[in-house]
Design goal:
single chain, about 450 residues, mainly alpha, Cytochrome Bc1 Complex, Chain C, two-stranded antiparallel sheet, 18 helices, about 65% helix, about 0% strand
Length: about 450
């Protein structure tokens, strides 16, 4: 090993890299180090996606006459083919879960503050690419569920102002979902998105290695941290092993998913474009909040079509989320910014409520659930969660800013308990936010007593 290292070191200069790894440390502070491992778990599930995807590509054949048959051949004839497909599907969903938790932990720890703005932006783009992986891969089995879910998902592209119809035809390869759509989604899923993702992952990891992991807020005194190699790395590898055990357990015990809408991948029947729409069709779980938001908007609003207004709202919210490093001025000064922590809580409540409602929680399993019963049941759950978060923030972290999360909770309560339409309840919440910020701006600051010997 020593001779091999010397041979490589003479040609590629590995000694500086080894010295860097020897001195690299992970910050240790008042915050939990658990959050530092989430990036590694996301990378592990992505690597699982790549490995299992390559194995599936050995037998998968894209095409209207071959896609469904090849997936059925993989799951019924290829030795352990069902297991590989189950591992691929489960690792996709676990990667999204890990990525979401990683993103919110980064947000609440304010790890986006300077000089790590580009780390946040590249991470946000990677999150969007992960959603693209899920959307493009959903159609590849070419079964009924995938066909009609893709029809519903791509149809929402028409709501994009100006270029909606053109964008729809680019995605579908025509006006309808067809074999051309399958070919395009296959190219996206196995060629375009992986190339872009690998490049961005490399850049994201380079930023983190050059700048190190973000220390806790207000950490001004340098202190010795945990050595990255081998201490942190060995812990990371142990967590990867636990993730592998979890992934294998889920893949074996639930090979076709837990059966929840948006979290199931049983092959079912082959897609038939002439057949009636699949009953109760819904997208994958991480798109459910957008799906439900589209349903909450009326056909026309403020001179726009309802779907256009909904897509515009989603685009504005995602833009604000991506620009947080430049909007959070207090975090830039390494000061506590509870207003942006409250923004993160409001986002969780907003997305969580719409997701639960899209799952028809409280609908008693009816084909046509009672919309008010669903809204009431999901409101009860969300308000309880909001109260628990409020208590935690107020008494454990002494936060005093609850305007945004309070407005989100008010919207949920008005809609779920008083039967106010979701949109009207949102208008009331927005007015509350505007009044709250106006009050904060007009409120006189605290009086400062004059210093001794100095005229006031």
């Amino acid at each position: 090993m020593s001779r091999a290292f010397d041979w490589l070191d003479k040609r590629y200069g590995l000694t500086p890299l080894v010295d860097f790894l020897k001195h690299k440390e992970v910050p240790v502070g008042g915050h939990s180090m658990v959050w530092y491992y989430l990036g590694g778990t996301t990378l592990f599930f992505f690597a699982s996606q790549v490995c299992t995807g390559l194995l599936l590509l050995l037998f998968y054949q894209p095409g209207e006459a071959t896609a469904y048959e090849s997936i059925r051949f993989i799951t019924t004839k290829v030795p352990f083919g069902w297991l590989v497909r189950s591992l691929h599907c489960w690792s996709a969903h676990l990667m999204i879960v890990s990525l979401i938790v990683h993103m919110f932990s980064t947000f609440f720890l304010k790890a986006y503050r300077p000089p790590r703005e580009l780390s946040w932006v590249t991470g946000f783009v990677l999150f969007m690419l992960a959603l693209g992986f899920g959307f493009s891969g959903y159609l590849l089995p070419w079964n009924e569920l995938a066909f009609f879910a893709t029809s519903v998902g791509t149809d929402s592209m028409k709501a994009v102002p100006g270029i909606g119809d053109w964008l729809l035809q680019v995605l579908r390869g025509g006006t309808d979902v067809s074999a051309q759509t399958l070919y395009r989604f296959f190219a996206l899923h196995v060629v375009a998105l992986p190339l872009i993702t690998v490049g961005l992952v490399g850049g994201h990891l380079l930023f983190i290695q050059r700048q190190g992991m973000a220390p806790a807020m207000g950490t001004h005194v340098a202190r010795r941290g945990l050595r990255f190699f081998p201490d942190f790395l060995l812990r990371d590898l142990l967590l990867w092993l636990l993730c592998l055990i979890l992934l294998a357990t889920l893949a074996v015990s639930l090979p076709y998913g837990p059966g929840l809408p948006g979290v199931e991948w049983e092959l079912g029947k082959k897609a038939n474009p002439l057949a009636p729409a699949y009953p109760g069709i819904k997208p994958e779980w991480y798109f459910l909040w957008v799906y439900q938001l589209l349903k909450e908007f009326p056909p026309h609003i403020l001179g726009m079509e309802g779907p256009q207004a909904a897509i515009l709202l989603v685009s504005v919210m995602l833009g604000i989320w991506a620009a947080v490093p430049w909007l959070d001025r207090r975090a830039q000064r390494d000061e506590s910014s509870t207003a942006f922590s409250d923004l993160g809580v409001a986002a969780i409540l907003f997305v969580g409520y719409l997701t639960l409602k899209a799952w028809d929680i409280g609908g008693k399993g009816l084909k046509v659930p009672d919309t008010f019963a669903v809204a009431r049941a999901t409101s009860i759950i969300t308000v309880i969660v909001a109260a628990a978060i409020f208590a935690l923030r107020r008494f454990a972290y002494q936060h005093r800013f609850f305007l945004l999360s309070g407005a989100a909770t008010l919207q949920i309560a008005l809609h779920g308990f008083l039967r106010v339409s979701y949109l009207n309840a949102g208008i009331v919440s927005v007015l509350l936010i505007a009044a709250g910020f106006a009050y904060l701006r007009l409120r006189p600051g605290p009086s400062v007593p004059p210093r001794l010997g100095v005229a006031p």
